[in-house]
TrEMBL record:
Keywords: Porphyrin biosynthesis, Transferase. One of its GO terms (molecular function) is hydroxymethylbilane synthase activity. It catalyses: 4 porphobilinogen + H2O = hydroxymethylbilane + 4 NH4(+). It comes from the Bacteria. Pfam families: Porphobil_deam. The gene is hemC_3. Residues 5-78 form the Porphobilinogen deaminase N-terminal domain. This is hydroxymethylbilane synthase. Its EC number is 2.5.1.61. The keyword Glycoprotein does not apply.
Amino acid sequence: MKSKKSFTKGDRIIDKQLSKVGGKGLFVKEIQNELFDHSIDMAIHSLKDVPSVIPEGLTLGCIPDRENPYDAYIAKKSCSIR
């Protein structure tokens, strides 16, 4: 199986409010299009960004058990994260 990392418009637009540039669906619209045009066979995405209405022809296949939600960034030197 090959993997492909996608950066959607929602990932790239960081200087505007999400509601002003397309809302939550902005993160998944491009991925959905890749599924429809068969560029990819499946996608894994954060459920919080998936709209409540899923387009006909796509299926929410599974929701796995949640792992520890406490992500941490640890660095030797102080820096800012953008």
